Amino acid sequence: MRSVPGSQATKVYRCPGCDHEIQPGVPHVVAWPADELGSVADRRHWHRACWDARGRRGPTRKRF
């Protein structure tokens, strides 16, 4: 997992936690499965609040 500051967020992503878009300029986190070694296809961009709440929510499409 790594944090992405708003100044480096330049694309629109869909958060797997809430299924809403993360707009350019919005700080967020990027996460990938621990058992994967840097596969770009397995990275997911999350809102920080969704990432922090992931253990308290129902299942997402793919658990990180």
TrEMBL record:
This is ATP/GTP-binding protein. It comes from the Bacteria. It comes from Amycolatopsis methanolica 239.
